[in-house]
Amino acid sequence: MKVLITGGAGFLGQRLARELLARGTLKDANGTPQTITELVLFDVVRADDFGDRRVRVEVGDIAEHSVLERVIDAQTSSIFHLAAIVSGQAEADFDLGMRINLDAARLLLETCRQRGHAPRVLFTSSVAVYGGDLPDVVRNDTALNPQSSYGAQKAIAELLLNDYSRRGFVDGRVLRLPTISVRPGKPNAAASSFASGIVREPLNGEAAICPVAGSTRLWLLSPRKAIESLIAGLELDAGVLGNQRVLNLPGISVSVDEMVAALRDVAGDTVAARIVWAPDARVEKIVGSWPGRWDTSRAEQLGLSAERSFADVIRGYIEDERIQIR
Amino acid sequence: MKVLITGGAGFLGQRLARELLARGTLKDANGTPQTITELVLFDVVRADDFGDRRVRVEVGDIAEHSVLERVIDAQTSSIFHLAAIVSGQAEADFDLGMRINLDAARLLLETCRQRGHAPRVLFTSSVAVYGGDLPDVVRNDTALNPQSSYGAQKAIAELLLNDYSRRGFVDGRVLRLPTISVRPGKPNAAASSFASGIVREPLNGEAAICPVAGSTRLWLLSPRKAIESLIAGLELDAGVLGNQRVLNLPGISVSVDEMVAALRDVAGDTVAARIVWAPDARVEKIVGSWPGRWDTSRAEQLGLSAERSFADVIRGYIEDERIQIR
User: Fold this and answer.
1) Per-residue pLDDT reduced to its tens digit, B99-115
2) In chain A, N or C terminus with fewer CB closer than 10 Å?
């Protein structure tokens, strides 16, 4: 089986690649595990190939048709489409967000349609498709009302994937991811970047700025569970998805104050005291429009799950990243 | 004030043009009536100019940027975007539907953005944005789940218009129209074409095929009320629309059996007997996915309304079209 990951050089892309290479197989549309013979890691920058012969690294612009034709052929049976412009950047640069989050997603679907073999295609979407007046718990049938260009672009990509699936051009599925926390590495241009930063930087002995109020409620998922969900999501039987290809993934609903309390419990007062509170209206507006929780019964029935507490998430991060608490 | 109607040669476009010319004014963003100095009727075929000097007729392909630049300038302060590929045709010709219902709508918004004057832009949308498992009465916060490419394209155009409005590129509003009945003229490629045909053809002394079961519930609005709503919708103050620019228009919820009974009441047994029942699975699938009723409290609070009964709609049609019952 030939597998493609777009955004293959990114944090989730690399972690997903490692997990797929370790597993060695992925279920096909009949539910039969197939050996992964080629894993294409495609991104705008060069991805790490882990020195694995099964990996083919491709670099290029995902909004170019000829580039997509190079990375998707009639043998590409499973596609994880992770490439995206994050929320803060898509708000700052409207044209770039439209080009990558909308045009490239459509071009990817269109390339699959032209190939004619209806591959499995997984899109990731986001809490940012919701906004405006929201119920405390967002239901599966709650209307989307994005309050950012990123959210609008993701919502449009969902509609496209649903229609391309309904018409049989692809066998698509969308996972709406909670905000991923704790991401290792550096802050990024996502409005939610602080949701990792306020744990990661203090654990690293550094100060971290928290740009939102402590009462702000977030809907979080760990990288471990995100990767597990991406693979399980791609392997889901199309029949159980029916006419609605979008799934809200399970997560943990926590306030920022509760996140800080969990950090204090796990790593102590000294670490938690490294958080600096400096409200930023631009970030608060975007993050405040996102739901703090959604109904995940459908995803749970399909076997997907999150951690039980944010303290567990922090412990998993410390373990994965081999962190020494100072 | 310079006004543009795309789809200006169509049935609603022509009727809207006549009404605007008769009124002579349209409210601006301050709620002040402004004299309509130019009304551009733009379509892929030549629109009737009614011999009125205020009318400028433009013919061209709405998916071409240079054409949109010809019909939208920095003085075009009000745009009614009615041009569309109807549901049945968008399902039969996917690429054409995408080109007109999605690409042209986006290009129109983009042209406005480039002009930089944030004109008022009204899009029409449809019951077809809904689908799948629906409550008996669709709420304002019910999720969209289109089951046709037309519905998906309209839902995407809604999201684009919302985001372009949020960013201040246009002052947009979307009216989700019920199925318009009774349309004069000929059947068209819309899956809902029969909703006019089963009244129009019998009143014209001709047989009409009804492709759906009598129990099928439709959500209807007369052309009179549709035109009234389009003008009121464009004149709505942006402040009352807030972060959600989409309005579900009031309509009448009737089953096809009730439509036939109303026709019998108004025009007699001989006329109603001209309906021939011939179920068509393709049409039933599309029409059956649409809601039979939605919550219209928001639109009603803003002063929009429908007729009280379908019999009233038929009487209005007979009056407007000066029909002699035979």
Assistant:
1) 999 999 999 999 999 99
2) C
